[in-house]
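for the recovery benchmark. tokens below, seq after
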């Protein structure tokens, strides 16, 4: 059963008892929890004791008037909306109250429907502001550095670097294979920078043809080309004072690279078809899954642009080079999809974890996340087993390569060959080999002694 939503709380401040009683009855009949205050002093004391969604106060009271109640409400509980009631013909008091932060004002005599409408709208605004703040908080938590999962030496080095560069305003070039988390790292840098309360604008440069990319980035004026029926502000301008993230920057054509370089050197934007230039302040973070030095040699990427964006280079390692993180990431994604899919999978079998650790992960962390989501969604087991993993069949071929195909050999011989192959792969490192096989180092030592 869905939990009953608490009634909105209103603090009613009115020194005339008969008027206060009318408002009290009206508000209670319409689903509000009401606390009464017969004067401004009592109202301020109530504000210090309890949370209210809205304060409805008369302006003319003595010795503490409604304007002072408003001032104190803004100090004590700035998230609480305030609606003031003015005497007939005293609109100036209401206007002054709105300048001090009141949501709205009503003139006596007050119409019931109008009062209820304004109160409902004020509380809806408060709830919307709260939801936005919560969303912003969740985004900050999601993109906090401690949410970038990794304990391997390579990822610890990456985390050290991004914690150092987040507070700077320097241009950053993030390089790494597809699926290594380049945008996640870029967003984390933004959310931990001085620009975190300003716009974050992400653009996939490989998703547009040249003419469209120029218009998307820099905007256009009406009539600049067929279909330009109105002026359009570009994404660069939308990112003003914030962070502009250019993903797949290597996919930009050479003519488009010239235009981007011109902007980076001048910090000025000129809309397509326009003549005026506008100053824009953005921090640039670029990303690519290509080797830009090779692209410069191949003359598919401008050398001057390369050095302009290569101020602070950051390379993200592929997942196959951070095997120590596979188990940690797998459990992280398991928790995520248990929550999202309302499941309660308790973990991974040893064999499944061995398979996850030994897989090559050509799609990197993105592929691992997708594999775990699929396994959580489809498994009927308490723990994820090898058959829940999409590359289980390829794992079966390992045994065929060990001689378990057509040749009939003993289980002991099969185990011996398997251990030899894993030891060879681990370059003689018993600790690493034991981890890959899902057994203790002592157990492996005993098996090697046989």
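predicted aa per position
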């Amino acid at each position: 059963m869905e939990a009953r939503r608490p009634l909105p709380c209103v603090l009613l401040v009115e020194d005339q008892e008969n008027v206060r009683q009318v408002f009290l009855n009206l508000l209670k009949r319409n689903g509000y929890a009401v606390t009464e205050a017969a004067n401004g002093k009592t109202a301020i004391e109530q504000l210090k004791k309890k949370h209210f969604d809205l304060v409805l106060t008369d302006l003319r009271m003595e010795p503490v008037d409604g304007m002072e109640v408003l001032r104190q409400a803004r100090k004590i509980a700035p998230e609480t909306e305030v609606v003031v009631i003015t005497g007939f013909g005293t609109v100036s008091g209401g206007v002054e109250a709105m300048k001090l932060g009141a949501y709205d004002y009503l003139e006596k005599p007050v119409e019931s429907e109008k009062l209820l409408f304004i109160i409902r709208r004020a509380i809806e605004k408060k709830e919307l502001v709260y939801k936005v703040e919560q969303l912003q908080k969740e985004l900050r938590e999601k993109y906090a550095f401690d949410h970038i999962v990794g304990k391997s030496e390579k990822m610890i080095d990456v985390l050290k670097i991004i914690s150092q560069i987040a507070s700077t305003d320097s241009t950053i070039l993030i390089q790494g294979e597809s699926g290594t988390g380049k945008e996640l790292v870029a967003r984390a840098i933004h959310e931990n920078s001085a620009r975190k309360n300003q716009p974050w604008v992400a653009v996939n440069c490989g998703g547009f043809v040249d003419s469209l990319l120029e218009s998307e980035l820099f905007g256009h004026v009406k009539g600049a080309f067929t279909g330009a029926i109105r002026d359009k502000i570009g994404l660069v301008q939308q990112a003003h004072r914030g962070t502009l993230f250019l993903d797949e920057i290597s996919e930009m054509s050479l003519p488009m690279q010239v235009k981007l370089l011109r902007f980076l050197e001048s910090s000025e934007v000129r809309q397509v078809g326009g003549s005026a230039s506008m100053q824009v302040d953005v921090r640039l973070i670029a990303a690519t899954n290509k080797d830009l030095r090779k692209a410069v040699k191949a003359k598919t990427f401008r050398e001057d642009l390369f050095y302009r964006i290569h101020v602070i280079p950051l390379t993200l390692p592929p997942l196959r080079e951070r095997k120590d993180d596979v188990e940690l990431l797998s459990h992280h994604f398991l928790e995520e999809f248990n929550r999202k899919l309302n499941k309660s999978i308790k973990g991974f079998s040893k064999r499944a974890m061995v398979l996850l650790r030994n897989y090559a992960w050509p799609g990197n962390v993105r592929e691992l996340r997708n594999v775990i989501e699929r396994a959580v969604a489809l498994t009927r087991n308490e723990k994820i087993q090898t058959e829940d993993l999409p590359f289980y069949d390829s794992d079966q071929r390992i045994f065929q390569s060990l001689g378990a195909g057509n040749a009939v050999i003993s289980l002991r011989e099969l185990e011996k060959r398997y251990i030899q192959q894993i030891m060879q792969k681990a370059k003689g490192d018993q600790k690493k080999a034991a981890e890959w096989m899902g057994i203790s180092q002592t157990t492996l030592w005993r098996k090697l002694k046989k």
